[in-house]
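Q: A reviewer asked whether we had any structural model of the full assembly, not just the individual parts. We don't, so I'm hoping you can provide one. Inputs are below.
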Amino acid sequence: MHAVSVSHIAKSFGATHAILDVSFDVGRGEIFGLLGPNGAGKTTTIRTILDIFKPDRGQVSVMGGPMTEQKKDRIGYMPEERGLYQDIPLDRCLLYLASLKGVPDAEARRRLEGYLERFDLAAHRRKKVKELSKGMQQKAQIINTILHRPELIIIDEPFAALDPVNTQLVKDLIRELRDQGVTILMSTHQMHQVEELCDRILLINDGRDVLYGSLDEIRRRYSGRAILARAAGDLPDVPGAVRLLPGAEPPARAGNGTVKLALSDGITPQAVLWSLLSQGAAVEEFQIAVPTLDEIFIQVVIA
Amino acid sequence: MISKLWRIARHEYERNVFKRSFVLALLSVPLMIAVIVGVGFFMASREVNNTPLGYVDHAGLLANPIPAPLAGSANRVDLIPFDGEAAARTALEAGDIQAYYVVAAHYFSTRRVDLYYLKAPGNNATRQFYDFMQINLLAGRSSLGADVARQAALLGDKVTVRSLDGSRHVPSGGPTFGIIMPLLIGFTFVFLLLMNSGYLMQAVVDEKENRTIEVLVTSASPTQLIGGKVLGVVAISFTQLAVWTITSILAVAVAHHLGIDWLQDLSLDWGTVLAAAGLAIPAYVMACALMAAAGAMIVSAHESQAAGMPFAVLHLAPLYLAWAIVMTPNALLPTILSFLPFTTLLTVTLRNIFTAVPAWQVAAAIAVQAACAVGAIWLAGRAFRLGMLRYGRRLRLRELLREGPP
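A: Here is a predicted structure for the entire assembly that you could use as a starting point for your response.
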């Protein structure tokens, strides 16, 4: 049973088609990345999963069936539009929101204590939310998302407004939650975070799913037939492996003396490596050239 | 379900009640009542003087006088006849009397009566002398004769005017506290709903403005959110009502003890009180629901005051038309206003002072108001679902009524 299963959903607002056809599954205990350019339909997809919007077409299943009021207590949601009560103290705000998720007061207080310490907010607990910095409010929002120990967490841009230290803190937390079996659906524009954290991704563009699968599989799909190689001294020529020049398409990575070689049909990376070694080259680096997620994103979206 | 409703209600209650501004507003009403009662008593006590009053009757009108009616026995003044003005003046200067009247010899043609005093006499004294004159004029000139006048004098203001069908009765002194009570209930509820339904609109707008709403709708259903807020506001109102009622009861008891005429008859007309309550409750629910709907439709807290204004004007409309309602309480306009959702409460309670509003009209008004309350709750739920995630964009009335589910 998937944590989330979305099947061919569509949603329009008047004449605006927010989602045309999106399908994907999120497995239990995985970190799933929901990607896409601005206005692609990510937030509408998330709101449809959470039953804030009803889809015009298609089906959504959350934890084995339609969304119910009981299931809401098992989900943690951090929306893109951050929101906490501004004119009440931080701890009161978080305890109230936790109470709406069904956490008993004493238990909520105990958990909150630990999270405030961990996120370095303990000294600010009595301050009104509006008196906190943007980064502090972001951390408070994250605490609110996990305070009730949800099974499924849906977070929109979790790293926005965080400095590198806090970004690392949140990354560690996400991994820790995943290790505890929590499913995480994360929407972000920060591709390096996706590469670092996500097991699988879905790329939405113009309301349609255009790329879906595990990161390794997608990278391999878009890797083309190229290798990156670097040797002490000059890299000898290899028959069937064309050296790509800087500025070429796809571009060669010329940094650190690394050379990108495009392979002709019938030439395998293993054959190239054998040829280099047999020519006496002191190979320091040799790898299949896989594109970054940034490159895949741009390639798919522009296409 | 109930637990979340309760938690939301408690949150709304605590958020508003534990504010300094709320406590000040809550205490301002009892303070105002205390000031009014205090000033009223002070002014009244300054105007009372129980020292005897003299009179000199040159016209022979009061030769064999009938005593003045027994009004306000606590403030009764002895009326002392003098044979001449010199004796009366001596008594005045000696402080035996506070003032004296001289009824002119040609009173029946000129109606002249002169008043002499060193310091202005008390209102109770002058009022009693006028009653005294009136009752003796009645005895002397009425075809009914002295016996009837004597009987009227004994009754004083204990005369009760009853309607022919027996449904209404008003003491000759004017409407009592008990008769005015339903109108006070109406005013209190309108005041409360204008004050507190604003909290509701503010709460909804705030959650939209600070973006908390998106987190909330993934924690509770729209029904729980709106229902909890309405419950919270109702609890706020009960707090205010409890404080004000206790203060009012104390004030009335004190005023009753001090002998303020208007508050001597405290008996209530329970029929009109129940009619007022029957109208007030659905009117209150309707106002809260409409304010919540308005909050969901508008964009920012800045707009909330302007959005609340039309509701205030509509609720207070019977006051602008009070003269027409009072003068002709059973005419077409007051009757129509009795059935309109915003004006029904004040119109019916105001009419009830001056006429017996037919029972069918009261029942129909309550039914209309209850139906409007149900409709307003439906509309609020719809506005909330459609408008809750419209950041920076107002939900139009046309969209509210026509658009499909979000």
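A: Points you may want to mention in the reply: The beta strands of chain B are 53-57, 79-82, 99-103, 113-117, 160-162, 169-171. Chain B touches chain A through 25 residues (CB under 8 Å).
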